[in-house]
Amino acid sequence: MAGERFLAWPVRAFWSGIALLALVGLGAIVVPAAPLGVDQRWSEAMVDSRTDFLTDVALVFNWLGRGVGETLTLAAVGAALIVRRRWGALIAFALAEALAVCSSSLLKIVVGRPRPPHGLVDPVGSSFPSGHATYAAVTCVGLVLLFSVPGRSRLWWWGLAALGIVGMAWSRTYLQVHWLSDVVAGSLLGAGMALAVFGGTQAHLARLTRRSATRAPAPALPGS
Fold first, then answer.
1. How far does the chain reach from its first CA to its final CA, in angstroms?
2. In the chain, how many domains are there?
3. How does DSSP assign the chain, residue by residue?
């Protein structure tokens, strides 16, 4: 567990994640029940852009973010971490996913924002924030932190993660089950939770390692 290194600057990542979570909390306080002007314009643009192909793509994202698709993804990541005996990584991943889901569900109850009318699928709960966008962000950011090395080589992975997050956010507005501000908040919530949990976990494990090193007995001198 002590060897896990998710981030080059874990404490900075932790506080960046906390800042994103605070921003989402502020958004939950000020967001109106009615859609914002940009929400309405974006929703109309999504209706105008409908094609059979785009609808199929959006439905794939919908499947990946719920039920069987979500379960298979999480199980695959968990199994990979168990096989590698990365227990600290497994704990961080499970905690980030669980807290993201709980936070999203709680905010939905507190805010109670109505969804757009005439959705192409039947979602559960209120509109703010998007649970699918939250899940996509916490999972995509988590995958980068779990399976790539901090440094410049990670830029490609961040690009792929961004595509996944944006794709999921787009799909929710295309399917007319969320407003644009809902998916922005969900994406920030998921990314913030991942940064906070993984950064906090790494910093905590590093403290435990230093504490164990200071408590370790000094090696015996030859002939003593």
1. 34
2. 1
3. -TT----SSHHHHHHHHHHHHHHHHHHHHH--SSPPHHHHHHHHHHHHT--HHHHHHHHHHHHHTSHHHHHHHHHHHHHHHHHTT-HHHHHHHHHHHHHHHHHHHHHHHHH-PPPPSS-SS---S-SSS-HHHHHHHHHHHHHHHHHS-SSGGGHHHHHHHHHHHHHHHHHHHHTTSS-HHHHHHHHHHHHHHHHHHHHHHHHHHHHHHHHHHHHSPPPPPTT-
Q: What is the pLDDT of residues 118-150, one digit of tens each?
A: 899 988 889 999 999 999 999 999 999 999 988
Q: Does some domain include residue 34?
A: no
Please report whether residue 156 resides in a domain. yes
- Count the residues in the chain: 224
pTM of the model: 0.90
The dihedral built from the CA positions of residue 137, 188, 130 and 81, taken in this order, carries a sign that is positive
8 half-sphere exposure, CB direction, 13 A CA radius: 7
Assigned domain for 137 exists: yes
* DSSP letter for each residue of 114-142: PPPSS-SS---S-SSS-HHHHHHHHHHHH
Domain limits for position 109 = 51-208
CB 21 within 8 A of CB 210: no
Q: Which pLDDT tens digit goes with each residue over 61-77?
A: 999 998 999 999 999 99
Structure tokens at 195: 């940064």
